Amino acid sequence: MSPLAARLHAALPQTQCTRCGYPDCAAYAQAVSTGEAAINQCPPGGAEGIARLAALTGQAVLPLNPVHGVESPRGMAVIDEAWCIGCTLCLDACPTDAILGGNKRMHTVIEAHCTGCELCLPVCPVDCISMDNASGAATGWQAWSAAQAAQALQRYELHSKRPKKDGSSALEEPQKDGKRSVIEAALARARAQRGQA
Asked: Is residue 40 included in any domain, yes or no?
């Protein structure tokens, strides 16, 4: 990472939400440093975040690009534990390991570690995860602190060091198929329960 990319990376909120169009905050910082990406693609950083990136790059401040989202209060993932089927898909999706749970067991969110990235929402097969407002009317860097960003980055780096499931050997494929059938069975049970409710 170049010195400029490192400074840009340090100015980002480290939510690792991917809304900027890059896989993480470091990749976005690198893209901004090379001119590949604009400075106005980070909704969690908001207007203040854009101003920080503008100051570091010498560019003019721009409004947040609406293609990437809008500046809003910081969210907090909340799991409806009555509907959670314990599929563990949200555990893999969470970039800061803020979700605690096990296979076929109820999951819960560790509030202090949730960055509000929303990456758990699309992977939940039973839609039991919602986002609550965690910062009231405060948005962008007013809803997030440098200490929270540092903690989120540290947790993301630890999460990134764990072995990935991709590239698994053919011997592990039956486990994936087994997990798929467990999820499908749990989905059927959840649908049946919702139908009775």
From this structure: yes
